[in-house]
Amino acid sequence: MSGGKQVSVAIIGAGFISEYHIDGIRAAGGADITTLVGRNLSKTKQRAEELQIAKASVDFDTVLQDPMIEGVVIATPDATHKPLAIAALDAGKCVLLQKPMAMNTGECGEIIAAAERSSARLSVSFMHRYFPEVRWLREQIDKKAFGKIHSVRMRNATSGAGWATWLYDPKNVAGGVVMQLGVHGIDLVQHLFGPIAAVSAYSSTMKPQCRLEDGEEVRMTLEDNVVAIYELAAGFNATHEMSWTEVSGTDRFRLEVYFEDGTVWLRTNEGAALFSKSRKHGPADWQSATLNQEPLGQSHHRHWLKVVRGSVPPDDTAQAGLSASIVAEHIYRSIVERRSQTVDCKG
Question: Do residues 156 and 288 both lie within one domain?
Fold first, then answer.
């Protein structure tokens, strides 16, 4: 695949997150979303009409057998990720796989093995990496604009997944808030600051009964609040707060980085990216970083389409998906064993 050729894409999964991918692909340009695959044909047809997608289906095999489709976005329950991703890769379709990558690290490894024997490329959807403020912070770290990092605070928090009962069923999901929300923060910490070497964690379930947006009551048997403390291989510590019960206060995530020569806050009430250089006297002089304004998902999907075309090398998100799963499993082990866990992100 070369140049800026138009890419044909199928979306697997007609639920909430599929709209992010559809909007992002269209904002990126250079792709045709030809097919939407769901579980219920009438609902999938209705959803496809709403999203202006020509073909609706409940048969994944039609996507695998269509030689025109080059890229597949898998946005389905966690338990389906492994069979769907492996089938798509075996059929030569490039895959953008929704996080968490799979139900456990063993399944992650099987998906990666399928990618290694395929001509197609595998990516995992860590959307937060591509936000303008995150890209800006990565540049500041790379050029050591604020000096040595002393400590980090990451917070991932929402009021919960009110749109789907399957997210509360352990048969369908890899875990609670750690796997459904916290893996984003695990990936950002490692993407920006390097490998996590050790973890201690504590959990609770603060809302054992949840009311969904349609009024249905579901029982929460998984963790909905977790605090993890990471020891980074680079020699500093990070705290990671994860909550599925926050009423308000966090927009997807909040990140605070405390450097030797300044402080950076991302996604606070004061703006997407604030920074302050150190001063010997007087109050901190806070400034707003200048960021590109762009539609949600545009940069993410523009990059993925380049990966599909082969105009850029495959990224590290598949290995990062495995690494995030390894860290998450160490979080769970720390909670159960009530002690710190040494992390080996090579598995």
Answer: yes
pLDDT tens-place string over residues 317-333: 999 999 999 999 999 99
Percent of the chain with pLDDT over 90: 92
213: containing domain:
129-294+326-342
On whether the CB atoms of residues 325 and 183 are closer than 8 A, the answer is yes
Band of residue 163 on the pLDDT scale cut at 50, 70, 90:
confident
- In CATH, what number is assigned to the domain containing residue 308? 3.40.50.720
User: Structure pTM?
Assistant: 0.95
SS3 142: helix
Q: Are 75 and 21 in contact (CB under 8 A)?
A: yes
The structure tokens 């379709």 sit at 93
Cα–Cα distance list, 46 to 14, 20, 50, 166, 343 (Å): 10, 18, 6, 21, 46
Number of domains in the chain: 2
276, 286 contact by CB (below 8 A):
yes
